[in-house]
Design brief:
This protein is 83% helix and 0% strand. By secondary structure, it is mainly α. The longest helix has 38 residues, at 24-61. 0% of the residues are buried.
């Protein structure tokens, strides 16, 4: 009977051979999409925060 740990690593290695790894171009494209969306979301949330802050200030100052 084979060692379960050895069997596990042999199976894991066989599965890694089946993986289709992305190309450098795909990695670059996906990275740019993530960075772009992150920046867009940060700008959007910053604008919403700023507008809500301004509105709250106006509400509190008008009392």
């Amino acid at each position: 009977m084979a060692n379960p740990l050895v069997t596990y690593f042999k199976g894991a290695f066989e599965e890694l051979k089946k993986v289709v790894w992305p190309t450098k171009r795909e990695i670059l494209q996906h990275t740019l999409v993530v960075v772009g969306l992150s920046l867009a979301l940060a700008i959007f949330l910053g604008a919403v925060d700023y507008l809500l802050n301004m509105g709250l200030e106006q509400l509190l100052l008008s009392r």
